[in-house]
Design a protein that fits this description.
single chain, mainly alpha, 2 helices, elongated, Ribosomal_uS14_sf, RNA-binding, Ribosomal_uS14
Length: 28
């Protein structure tokens, strides 16, 4: 759970920076 939490935070940061295509426009 702890690793998943860290992954989620990093994933959100990448999405916020626009590193992940499509996620920015999805805005979920």
């Amino acid at each position: 759970m702890r690793k998943f939490g860290m992954f989620r935070v990093n994933f959100n940061k990448l999405a916020h920076l626009g590193q992940i295509p499509g996620l920015d426009k999805a805005s979920w």
